[in-house]
């Protein structure tokens, strides 16, 4: 984490594609993610930021307002607020108001816990605020398996409250997993029912996500299913441009690419401000290796964005190793930096979920070392909201209900 | 009369709901009303968009900025693209209103 004395001058092509310009970085992010607190009422198994407990160093209300002032000066027109669960910060609604009245639009992600009818009516009365409800299963069984008991009902109640209040076009944000890829049509139906827009994003092995990635990440054939579904429904479904690794299912020349920005925007067009003011390259990379600086210690957000050595490195031409020889490199551009890093793969190697199969080979090679996760704000002791990732099934070796020993069939347990 | 020629004689302004953010290669345009985001990929186009309001029509804007006449069709096409998302809009003056009513 180093802040440079002067900003490097980068030679830029005149004209050129937007992707080429974006790779060299922008003067300010297009939008950024701002996590307001590490505190959360839930304990989702795959939480990207290992949230649970508040950090005592979290920014104060006044410090948050200073961040908003700076975003307004930098003309950052949109911020994605998340956490933790941002709405459990007592000053959340005050900050929301402050941002909107300072030309910084807000989309906030929530599990819905505080979206009662009164709050829903308040949100419906605002302009320039988007609400994104997290839902990782189209049924309680699939959702609560990773997000914890009762979380499906909380999300649906919030959606209903928003709809009843007349809030238009809420977003339903789904992290695509092995357990829910088969429910894409059902998710779409839920979105339609509540007048909402579906948003699908990729599961990354970040935060607690690293612990469950092996069990939750989509299987290769499910990736194909997801790609086909997005190609058929893509115009009406948001993706946060997170599935660019799937574009390699298309033509090598980029035909069949998914709509949106097919590049890693980390430190170039997006970044993360965490609850204590640390700035990371992307929301999925809370780790010292991707820490650019701190807005309190390093002279404000603009200074970190423009002068951090890490961000300037990310904006320099990247070496993509063996991937550059792949015919599909222009389609996926090497995939997701965070997914590679947290599965112990080299950053100039293939994405662990490379659809051409190079990721599986790399994962199987055996000489990778998983990095320690960054900050962990998980609760020290489990609460009643902790998901229990167990499924009740029958033991396959038991053929009949248990009986007393004397009534035991002499052939019990004997199978041919 | 082609669409290109027609626009050259019209008066246009940057939409009041739009903010232009300078970027190393041009500018990012953001519309607070429809929340559309557009990138202007060339500096002269940014200058043209900024200068529209001070000029009586698109033709004199292009001349002031110094865009060679051979490039005008490309610039007019770019302006039409911006008009489609309300980034720029026809200037409304009492005189223009009269003319438009006359056309209608």
Sum this structure up briefly.
Chain A has 416 residues and is of the alpha/beta class. Chain A has helices spanning 18-23, 61-73, 92-100, 117-125, 140-147, 151-164, 184-193, 209-216, 220-233, 301-307, 309-315, 329-332, 337-342, 358-364, and strands spanning 32-37, 78-83, 105-110, 129-134, 171-176, 197-202, 272-273, 278-280, 291-294. In chain B, helix 2 packs across helix 3 (58-65).
Record keyword descriptors for this entry.
heterodimer, A: 416 residues, alpha/beta, 9-stranded mixed beta sheet, 14 helices, 29% helix, B: 104 residues, alpha+beta, Outer Surface Protein A, domain 3, 44% helix, 21% strand
Would you kindly provide a written description of the structure presented here, covering whatever features stand out?
The complex is a heterodimer of chains A (416) and B (104). With 416 residues, chain A is an alpha/beta fold. Chain A is 29% helix and 11% strand. Chain B has 104 residues and is an alpha+beta fold. The relative contact order of chain B is 0.22. Chain B has a 3-stranded antiparallel β-sheet, with helices on one face. A two-stranded antiparallel ribbon of chain B has the order 1-5. The interface between A and B is medium-sized, with 18 and 14 residues.
Q: Numbering strands along the chain, what is their spatial order in the largest sheet of chain A? A: 6-5-4-3-2-1-7-8-9
Helix percentage range of chain A? 25-40%
Major protein interface: A-B, 18 and 14 residues
CATH class term of chain B:
Alpha Beta
Strand order of the largest sheet of chain B: 2-3-4
Low-confidence stretches of chain B: 96-104
Task: Tell me, briefly, the overall form of chain A.
Answer: globular
Quote the distance from N terminus to C terminus of chain B. 18 Å
Average of per-residue pLDDT values of chain B: 88
Strand content of chain B: 15-25%
What does the oligomeric state look like here? heterodimer
As residue ranges, the low-confidence spans of chain A are none
Q: Please count the beta strands of chain B (DSSP E, at least 2 residues each).
A: 5
Helix content of chain B: 40-55%
List SSEs of chain B in N-to-C order: HEEEEHHHEH
- Gyration radius from CA atoms of chain B, angstroms: 14 Å
Head-to-tail CA distance between termini of chain A: 64 Å
Rg of chain A, Å, rounded? 23 Å
Structural classification of chain A? alpha/beta
Q: Number of domains in the coordinates of chain B?
A: 1
Task: Count up the helices of chain A.
Answer: 14
């Amino acid at each position: 984490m180093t802040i440079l004395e002067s900003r490097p001058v980068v030679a830029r092509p005149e004209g050129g594609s937007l992707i080429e310009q974006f790779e060299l970085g922008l003067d300010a992010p297009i939008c950024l993610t701002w996590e307001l607190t590490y505190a959360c009422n839930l304990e989702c198994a795959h939480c990207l930021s290992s949230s649970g407990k508040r950090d005592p160093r979290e920014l104060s209300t006044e410090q948050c307002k200073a961040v908003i002032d700076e975003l307004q000066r930098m003309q950052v027109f949109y911020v994605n607020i998340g956490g933790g669960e941002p709405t459990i910060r007592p000053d959340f609604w005050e900050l929301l108001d402050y941002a909107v009245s300072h030309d910084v639009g807000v989309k906030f992600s929530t599990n819905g816990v505080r979206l009662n009818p009164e709050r829903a009516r308040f949100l419906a009365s605002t302009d320039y605020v988007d609400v994104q409800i997290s839902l990782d299963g189209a049924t309680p069984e699939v959702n609560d398996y990773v997000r914890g008991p009762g979380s499906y009902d909380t999300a649906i109640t919030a959606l209903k409250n928003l709809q009843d209040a007349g809030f238009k076009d809420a977003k339903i944000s789904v992290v695509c997993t092995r357990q829910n890829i088969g429910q894409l049509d059902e998710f779409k139906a839920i979105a339609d029912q509540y007048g909402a827009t579906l948003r699908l994003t990729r599961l990354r092995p970040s935060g607690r996500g690293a612990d469950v990635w092996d069990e939750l990440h989509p299987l290769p054939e499910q990736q194909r299913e997801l790609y086909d579904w997005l190609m058929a429904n893509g115009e009406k479904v948001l993706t946060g441009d997170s599935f660019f690794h799937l574009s390699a299912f298309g033509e090598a020349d980029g035909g069949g690419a998914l709509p949106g920005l097919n590049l890693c925007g980390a430190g170039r067009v997006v970044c993360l401000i965490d609850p204590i003011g640390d700035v990371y390259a992307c929301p999925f990379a809370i780790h010292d290796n991707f820490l650019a600086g701190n807005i309190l210690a390093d002279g404000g957000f603009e200074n970190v964005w423009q002068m951090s050595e890490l961000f300037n490195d990310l904006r320099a031409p990247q070496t993509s190793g063996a991937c550059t020889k792949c015919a599909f490199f222009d389609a996926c551009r090497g995939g997701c930096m965070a997914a590679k890093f947290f599965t112990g793969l080299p950053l100039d190697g293939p994405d662990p979920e490379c659809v051409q199969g190079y990721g599986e080979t790399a994962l199987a090679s055996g000489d990778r070392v998983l990095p320690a996760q960054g900050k962990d704000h998980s609760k020290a002791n489990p609460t009643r909201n902790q998901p229990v990732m167990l499924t009740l099934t029958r033991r396959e070796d038991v053929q009949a209900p248990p009986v007393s020993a004397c009534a035991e069939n002499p052939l019990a347990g004997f199978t041919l | 009369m082609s669409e290109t020629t027609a626009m050259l004689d019209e008066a246009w302004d940057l939409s009041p709901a739009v903010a232009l953010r300078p970027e190393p290669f041009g500018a990012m345009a953001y519309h607070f009303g429809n929340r559309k985001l557009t990138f202007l990929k060339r500096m002269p186009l940014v200058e043209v968009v900024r200068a529209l309001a001070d000029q009586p029509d698109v033709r004199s804007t292009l001349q002031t900025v110094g865009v060679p006449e051979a490039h005008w069709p490309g610039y007019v096409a770019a302006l039409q693209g911006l008009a489609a998302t309300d980034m720029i809009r026809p200037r409304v003056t009492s005189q223009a209103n009269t003319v438009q009513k006359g056309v209608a």
